[in-house]
Amino acid sequence: MKSLCNFVNSKIAKPRIRWLKRLSIGLVGGIAIFTMPRCAVAPPVREIAGERTSTLGQAIGKQISQTRKAEADRILQQGVSQYKDRRFRAALQLWKQALLIYRETDSKSGEGVVLNNISEAYRRLGESSQALEVYEQALAIFQEIGNGSGEGIALNKMGLIYRSLGESSKALESFEQTLAIAREIDNRFEEGVALNNIGSVYDHLGEFSKALEFYEQALAIRREVDDRSGEGMTLNNLGTVYAYLGDDSKASAFFEKALAIFREIGDDDKEKLTLDNIRAVSQNISASP
Questions:
Q1: Domain that holds residue 280
Q2: Cα–Cα distance measured from residue 249 to residue 227, given in angstroms and rounded to the nearest whole number
Q3: Is the whole-model pTM more than 0.85?
Q4: What tens digit of pLDDT does each residue of 164-207 get?
Q5: pLDDT (tens digit, 9 = 90+) per residue, 246-281?
Q6: Is residue 128 in some structural domain?
Q7: Which of 66, 82, 83, 158 is 20 to 30 Å from 33 at the Cα level?
C-alpha cells in the first residue's frame, strides 16, 4: 500500500516509516504563535502641588517601563510577521530582542509569550533540543503567573517534539497533562486537541483500539465547538487507523468526509494529503483479489 497521511495536532509532519504520513496542528490556529494586546499610551505625568518627589519619580519610572513594554510588543509583532513569511531565523532574532526588554521591565506575561514563540521558531528550524529547553522556561513562567491556557500550549508543543523524536512515553505524558489542564480550565477546544494528540501516540504505537477511542472522543468535541479544521483532521486520523486495520471501505468513508471539510474551509495542503490517502486506499482496494 502507498503511504497514507495522518494528522497530529501542530504542523505538517513527515511520513511515517510504515504506511502513514501525518499532519499536526497546534492548540491555537495551527502555529500557536502569541501576540500581545495593544498597550494603551501612558498618560503624561503631571506634578500636583504637595505631591512628594518620590511619587513623581515613580510615575516617570512607570511611564518609561510602559514605553519599553510597548517597544517589546512592537518587536514581538514584527517577529510574528517574519514567522508567517517562514523567515524563522529573522523571527527568532526579533523575539530574542523582545525577550530582553520584557525581562528588563519584569513583564512576566510578555516573557512567557515570547519564550513560547522562540521555542516554536526553534521547533520549525528542527532544533528540537533548543526548543524543548525554551518551552520548559515558558512553561515555568505560565505556571508562575497562573496562565493555564499558555501552560497547556507549551505542554502540547513539547509533546509534539517528543513524538517527533520517537519518545512516545514523554509525548503521551505531555499530552495527558495538556488534557488535564484543558478540562480544569474548561477549554473544550484544547481538550479536543489533546484527545486527538493522545490518539496519535497510540496510533503511532500500533495500539489501534486506544487510538480509535481517543480519536472518537476528539471528534465529538471538535464537532461540538465547531472546530472544522480539527474535525477534518480527526476524521482523517480515524481513516488511517481503519486503513491499518484493513477496513479500506470504512477508511475511504472517513477520508471522503475529511476531504469535504478541507475543501469547504480552503485548506489546500490538507486537501492534497487527504487525496493522497484516498488514492492509496483506492489502489489497495483495486489490488485486492
A1: 227-289
A2: 26
A3: no
A4: 999 999 999 999 999 999 999 999 999 999 999 999 999 999 99
A5: 999 999 999 999 999 999 999 999 999 999 999 999
A6: yes
A7: 66
